[in-house]
Structure formats: C-alpha cells, structure tokens
C-alpha cells in the first residue's frame, strides 16, 4: 500500500503536532519543510524499528561494525562454528 506524503511547514508542525502525529501513526508520511525546502521526514515506527535505527545510525556502533568488516576482509575473522565452540 502506497501512502502519499503530506507536507507541513515547521510552523504547521509546531501548531498542529498532535494532529499531524496521529496521521503519521495511521501510516501517513510527513515531510517537514522550512522555507519551502524539506528538512525532515516523519514516519511511524515500532519499538523494534527504533532499535534498528539506533544500531544503523549510532556513530560508535557504525565504527565498530566497520572495524569488524575490515578485520574480516583482512582475514582476521574466525568462523562462527569455532566462535560458538569457544563459548
């Protein structure tokens, strides 16, 4: 199901946040604009999706994953089976 996006200025968001967020909860995607230019998008999410978002966007976690990927590419990883046996 494709939902059309709704656009709201920062002033509209400020004055109608509760109403706009109720629409987002129902599946509407809200694009917030400042001076006619998009600055943010708001969409509904679950608790599980919040966890994924944190994992994907936290700079410390991203750096750790990147280091692990570099180690793996350099052959410094260990097979999962060997790791599991160590525990």
Q: How would you describe this protein?
A:
The protein has 87 residues and is α+β, with helices and mostly antiparallel strands. The chain folds into 2 domains: 1-44, YefM-like fold, CATH 3.40.1620; 46-76. The chain has 4 helices and 3 strands. The protein has helices at residues 10-25, 47-57, 59-73, 80-86; strands at 5-9, 29-34, 37-42. A 3-stranded mixed β-sheet has the order 1-2-3, covered by helices on one side. Strand 2 (29-34) and strand 3 (37-42) form a beta hairpin. The mean pLDDT is 89.
- Tell me the series of helices and strands, N- to C-terminal: EHEEHHH
Gyration radius from CA atoms, angstroms = 20 Å
Count of beta strands: 3
Work out the count of structural domains: 2
What's the CATH architecture name of the largest domain? Answer: 3-Layer(aba) Sandwich
CATH secondary-structure class of the largest domain: Alpha Beta
Number of helical regions:
4
Sequence stretches where pLDDT stays below 50 over 5 or more residues: none
Query: Can you give the helix content as a percent range?
Result: 55-70%
Q: Which structural class should the secondary elements be placed in?
A: alpha+beta
Q: What would you call the shape? A: elongated
CATH topology of the largest domain: YefM-like fold
How can the largest sheet be summarized?
3 strands, mixed
Mean pLDDT: 89
CATH superfamily of the largest domain: YefM-like domain
Major sheet: arrangement of strands = 1-2-3
Give the end-to-end Cα distance, rounded to a whole number of Å: 45 Å
Proportion in β-strands: 15-25%
């Amino acid at each position: 199901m494709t939902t059309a996006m709704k656009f709201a200025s920062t002033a509209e968001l400020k004055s109608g946040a509760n109403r706009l967020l109720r629409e987002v909860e129902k599946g509407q995607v809200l694009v917030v604009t400042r001076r006619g230019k998009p600055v943010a998008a708001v969409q509904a999410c679950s608790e599980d999706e919040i966890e994924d978002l944190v994992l994907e966007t936290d700079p410390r976690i991203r750096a750790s994953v990147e280091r692990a990927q570099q180690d793996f590419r350099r052959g410094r990883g260990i097979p999962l089976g060997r790791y599991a046996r160590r525990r």
